[in-house]
Amino acid sequence: MITLDPINPISTDILEEIGFVWHTDADLTHYVADELVVVSDHEAEAYYEAVNELYTMYTAAAQHVIDNNLFFELGIPFNLVECIKKSWDNDVHWHLYGRFDLAGGIDGKPIKLIEFNADTPTALFETAILQWALLKHNNMDEARQFNNVYEAISDNFRRLVTLFEDTEMFERYYEGWKILFSADSSNSEEERTVRLLQQMAIDAGFETEFEPLVNVKFDEEGIYDRHENSYEYWFKLYPWEDIAIDENELATLLTAIMTHQKAIILNPAYTLLFQSKGMLKILCDLFPDSPYLLRASYEPLHGVACVEKRMFGREGANVRIFDHAGKILESTDGPYENFKAIYQEYVEFPKDARGNSYQAGVFFAYEACGLGFRRGGKILNNGSKFVGHRLS
């Protein structure tokens, strides 16, 4: 059974002062739990080691996909294949951050990979900022967390310039390059998340600006804000698969911009490989003995309880859980039905005394750097709660 520590919640007024405005769900309940998951130092270290190893496995799997032209198997849109290859072949296209979703790791259960949110992961503000605020608000030791997300991503911004060199070398190499940050400004969560990343970049030493997605301009020579200022880097909280499907002309322009080396896009196009849940099958093929992987297939798993997901499904939509006889135990609808299906062996999440399930989310920015939890039912969706943690 998961151990929980009750805490005093932060008032909504204070949450809004620090920019956290999505604090209340549609049913008027608090999105952030007034409890913390208690995690041992040993469990935190195990999460750290697992995620670092999983990222190494993902990079090997991505190379395998590219070498063997397996883009179709992963549901990759054809109009982004060239973009993916170009970003993969040049180290300047640096993967800024992502989030691994994991089962287990607490209550004695082994860590198992559920999926990798590599392109536009959510819960960044909650993990990087809110968890610290919760501990401070409750007079707890703020250092007793597995959580250096803010510093890790700031350092990764410096690596856009230094690459594999020491991040302390940033000022020596930096030549005033600017980053344009963009999000859908009608979505407060997305805008605040991007503005948090912008502040991380400022702290790293970059010149930055923010521009709503709708106002960003493109041609084959670059990326511009509404005032026609050009930028060497563009961060977009806009999934690559949505660009491919909904913005074919933009996909073509971004490929040309990369080909002419006019700008670098964050997160890079190759993160679409990581984002595809089809990689779960590739990982199983390449690393059959990994203790972190659940069996996965492009076809239903017979005689095994399994989960059907869509290659690019999000927020628990279009998911079905089958028992070992193929009977549907639980399912959700959603907008991702047209994507190919992937089947993954089902595993129970750790539970609390009330029967709630807990999924760990571990951010990765050059290395594993921060832990948080989502709480809900068998299928975690957009109505799931965020639960912070403390080290015992």
Strand coverage percent: 15-25%
Question: Can you tell me the residue ranges where pLDDT is under 50 for at least 5 consecutive residues?
Answer: none
How many structural domains in the coordinates? Answer: 1
Q: Report how far apart the termini are.
A: 15 Å
**Which of globular, elongated, flat, extended, rod-shaped describes the shape?**
globular
| Mean pLDDT rating | 94
The number of helical segments is 11
- Helical residue percent? 25-40%
Give the helices and strands as they follow along the chain. Answer: EHEHHEEHHHEHEEEEHHEHHEEEEEEEE
> Total number of β-strand segments?
18
Radius of gyration: 21 Å
The largest pleated sheet is described as: 7 strands, mixed
Strand order of the largest sheet: 1-2-18-17-16-3-4
Structure class: alpha+beta
